[in-house]
TrEMBL record:
Species per Swiss-Prot/TrEMBL record: Pyrenophora tritici-repentis
Keywords, sorted A to Z: Metal-binding, Nucleus, Transcription, Transcription regulation, Zinc, Zinc-finger
Gene Ontology cellular component list: nucleus
Subcellular location per the Swiss-Prot or TrEMBL entry: Nucleus
Domain of life: Eukaryota
PANTHER family the record matches: ZINC FINGER BED DOMAIN-CONTAINING PROTEIN 39, ZINC FINGER BED DOMAIN-CONTAINING PROTEIN 4
BED-type domain residues: 70-130
GO molecular function, one term: zinc ion binding
Protein name, per record: BED-type domain-containing protein
Amino acid sequence: MEPSTPTSPSPSNIIRLDLTSLTPSLIPTSSPTPILSPTPIQYHESPDEFVQGGITYVKRAIIARKDFRQGTSHIWKYGLQYIRDSDKKEVYYCHECRVGKSKQELFVINGTSRIRNHLEQKHQIDPQSGIKRKGSVRKSIIDQQKDGAASSIFFWKESVEKFKELLIRWIVYCHIAFFQLENQYFRELLLFLNPALLNHLPKAAKTIRSWVMNAFISKKQQLREDLHHSRSRISISFDLWTSPNPYAILGVVAMWIDTTGMRRVTALGMRRIYGEHTGENLGSVVLELLEEYDISGDQIGYFMLDNASANDTAVEFILKDLCPWMKSKQRRHRRLRCLGHVINLCCQAFLMGRNCEKYLAKLEKHHQRGDYTKVEELWKKFGCLGRLHNLVRYIRLTPQRREEFATIIIGGDLSQFDGLELIQNNSTRWNSWFYSITRALNVRERLELFSARHVPGKGSVGIANFKLDGQHWFELEKIELALKDFYAATLLSEGKKTSLADWFSTLDCLLREISETKDHYHDIHTEDDNNFTWKYLQGCADAAWLKCVEYYNNQQLNWQNRFPEDTDLPPAYYAAQILDPYRKWGWFRQEWVLHGDEEKKRWFENAQLAVKHLWETEYKGRYPVEIRLRNNQSDRHD
């Protein structure tokens, strides 16, 4: 076979540009020094009224004859103010553009910087002195690059499209304002790197906006096609968050296996939520998005959500609409619970007791009302945690107290902690208490010095009600040690490498650690019954253990008469674990059969029935399987 010979690119695949220089020099040339003209040019009288682009412009001096005053800036030597009839905004009319018979740019007057730049770049008017240059001047970088459009080079169309794609990606992912494409210095940078971009770089923000919108429409259509050809059911996750505006925003994410066998996770969209955050309201927004992507009831899989009761209602609302043939229990089987959220609830129970939801609701109510006195009073009920919360908030509340704390230097072996700021706990951010307590322990000496030296303002008790003594610091050390287990469990539940197959093993490990901590505190409290610290910590561990047991046991199937359709609990947790090639049934046999009691052995039997029932009712025969045999294997069976 003869080697192929290179061929010239066909005219349909290239763009021909005429450029004299690919790399314009930034070094000043030997052009003469600019000569400044001492007096401005005298212009003919401008029209009282003119029309451009179908819009009428009227000279401002005509409209406001009595109180009209011209500004003192030099820009008014080279132009006038006109009123745009469509919106009554003042615009700048350039005399130099009229003399040169150029189209008026008509800048809206909200400052002089853009007008000065226009006069300098287009008409060589010095921005400082306002005097027009005469004679030869050294050209700007952009002028040099424009003058380079005379030599002949080839520029592939594919390269232009690739540049366009990369530019859009940079703007979208880095949150770049569209008008930055008009920035002179950015354009100079790009054209310096490749002058061939001169005719392809958009000149206006409006152009790049249309590029982005067209790219979005194209990507959305491609995503719609990918979802349509999904090899698996499409599972959905959604959650609410508050934007800095603040708006209530619902983010919706889809998870599925594409035609290549790859697991895909893609955001379907973000929608603002109006009104109450009820399940029906959330569900209707999710339904609209699913309809936009043509996701039908046959394609819908599971819903992985946090434990908010509104999410139960939302899933019921969505599936009733998409899958009217489903029974109530079948719809409940499709609702899964976020493991990270379950771990966080167990952690909150450890910190705030069995009624933590009630206390958190009260705190949220007082925060929304702005009643921070009641917030502070409520936190006092939580011992060392409440004192630390109030102390950190007090220091961080004003810049003066932050500075006072920052000026406290310990030095020596603790110098690495001298520059650290305090971290405030946050009820909506996982592990925030762990971070807050760890930081407080690291800067303990600085906090103690602050508490001893600080002088509150007049009429304020300052930190007198929430100083931390030795007993409080001892309790914080023990709490931080226990929180490390929750922190580790949270990390195990995050990231792309984690799946539903890790649900049982992670929660089981956490339950074991909490149980050991509970027993440890119980033994010490028995030996020292009068010590409040161990009684308090034992109560914390008991609350966390009960919460963890609640969620762990709720995932066990307790079928009456062993009819799988009678259970309210999703068998997907079991199926995910036994379909993991590394685990299969091994973990269940190890933990529930070999080392479990009679109840756990029944769990194992029920899990086997659940997975079998799931296969027979929802997956068996759904996807055709082709069996291809080699010729010799086929002959062997004949």
